[in-house]
Amino acid sequence: MTATRSDRAVAVTGVGLVTPAGAGTEETWQRVCSGLPTAAEDPELADAPVGFSCRVDGFDPRGHVGGSQPWRYDRFTQFALVAAREAVRDAALDPDTWDGARVAVVLGSAAGGVTTYEEQHHRLRTSGHRAVSPLTLPAFLPNMAAGQLAIDLGVHGPALQTGTACASGATALVTAAMLLESDACDIAVAGGSDAMVTPMCATAFARAGALSRGHGDPAGASRPFDAARDGFVLAEGAGLLVLERTADAAARRASPQAVLAGHGSTTDAHHAVAPQPDGRCLREATQQALARAGAAYGDVDHVNAHGTGTPLNDSTEAAVLSELFGPEGPAVTSTKGVTGHTMGAAGAVEAALTVLAVRRQTVPPTANFHRADAGTSGIDVVHGAARQRPVELAVSNSCGFGGHNVVLAFAPAPTVRGARR
To answer: Domain Ketosynthase family 3 (KS3): where (predicted)?
Structure first.
């Protein structure tokens, strides 16, 4: 592979995850590598057309978020706070001592505090306006997770919210990299969070024909690239990464986990919810990411695919991957087989898992994949068990309603002499 362009490469120095696979990075990684799905019947969706989901099981706001009033935050903000704190600790940074004016927060979300909105709307309709909480707006506005992260971490630099549907978390990472490249900050805490496992969201996705009907087995419902796929499983969670310029990370003797070597962003301009049939713009986003990384198609060892489990997405994405990389191409996985689709968090959650794949030289399996069909047979889908293999360059794909495409390219981090964590 051509040497990563040092003027553009950004170090990933910290990772934090809250997912259905676990409230923490290591727990999530181990569950994802086990290939054990998290989908289960969901009592809160008992009256919805599809009654199962992938929830963050056992998440306790008081225990995980802390403080005396964690209920003031919507669930998507609670997830973001926990993941961001883990990422900052993992980066060996201390918000009490950093220069907050040189730190940025960029948080992607597809829906913001939709749980709060649904609850408060129900109160308004059933009990009148006096039953509506005065904290409704601070809880549900999409920017509030970024704002609350800035308050929690003492950040005085840019605090931004990105909204590109299911690509929101990946868009946040691209935005953060651009802030670093433009010298608008020295540290960026960036990623995505969503908590859309609600009756309204579940019903809307089901009515749109996007959700799996379960095959009579919720745990087997999320089937990325499988011939029997029939939709995604609704999930929730957050993924936050700490990004720094590689020189700055080296100067403080940080131990990066990987480098964000390149990124590409395009828009289909084709249809509100369906992918471009020929995948041209997803292909162009991949080309942009590899060009920025100074890499060729043959350099890519692993792809963490968008892989939702919907018939159209998977066949389109598989066709693009097959065209770009050929039949002997990279090891492909969709971790949504385990986690379900975490919506606006997905791009960041999967970027974090791609970082871990690079760092640990391990490709997780695609849960519930049994056989390909004509639309997905041209790629090497890792399944059954995690695959130990060299991963010198990996890409993570994200696509969203509205035609958004984001591709992130990650490479191993250079060894830092005297590094500390």
So the answer is: 7-412
Token pair 């909480």 is found at: 133
Q: How far apart are CA 34 and CA 410, in angstroms?
A: 23
Q: How many CB atoms lie within 10 A of CB 390?
A: 9
d(CA 88, CA 43): 35
Nearest to 401 by CA among 219, 213, 114, 201: 201
Which are the catalytic amino acids?
166, 306, 341
CATH 3.40.50.150 fits 10-411, yes or no: no
pTM of the model: 0.96
Phi, psi of 107 (to 5 degrees): -125, 125
The separation between CA 182 and the C-alpha centre of its own chain, rounded to angstroms, equals 24
* Inter-axis angle of helices 168-181 and 346-360, nearest 10: 70
Residues 6+ apart with CB under 8 A from 82: 16, 18, 23, 64, 65, 238
Round to whole Å and give the CA distance between 13 and 244. 7
Residue matched to tokens 């069909």: 373
Closest CA to 226 of 371, 126, 97, 357: 371
Q: What is the pLDDT of residues 171-228, one digit of tens each?
A: 999 999 999 999 999 999 999 999 999 999 999 999 999 999 987 899 999 999 999 9
Q: Which residues are within 8 A (CB) of 378 and not within 5 positions of it... i.e. 6 or more apart?
A: 318, 319, 321, 322, 327
- Mutual orientation of helices 75-90 and 114-127 as an angle, nearest 10°? 160
The 10s digit of each residue's pLDDT in 331-387 is 999 999 999 999 999 999 999 999 999 999 999 999 999 999 999 999 999 999 999
Interatomic CA distance for residues 114 and 390, integer angstroms: 41
Q: How far apart are CA 185 and CA 225, in angstroms?
A: 40
In this structure, are strands 258-267 and 236-245 parallel, antiparallel, or unpaired? unpaired
The number of C-alpha atoms within 13 Å of 415 and in the hemisphere containing its C-beta is 2
Q: Which of 297, 313, 53, 30 is nearest to 167 (CA)?
A: 313
Residues 6+ apart with CB under 8 A from 148: 73, 77, 80, 81
Structural tokens at position 235? 């999930």
* DSSP one-letter string for 134-187: TTHHHHHSTTHHHHHHHHHHT--S-EEEE--GGGHHHHHHHHHHHHHHTTS-SE
For the chain, the domains span 10-411
Alpha-carbon distance values, 347 to 210, 234, 280 (Å): 18, 15, 20
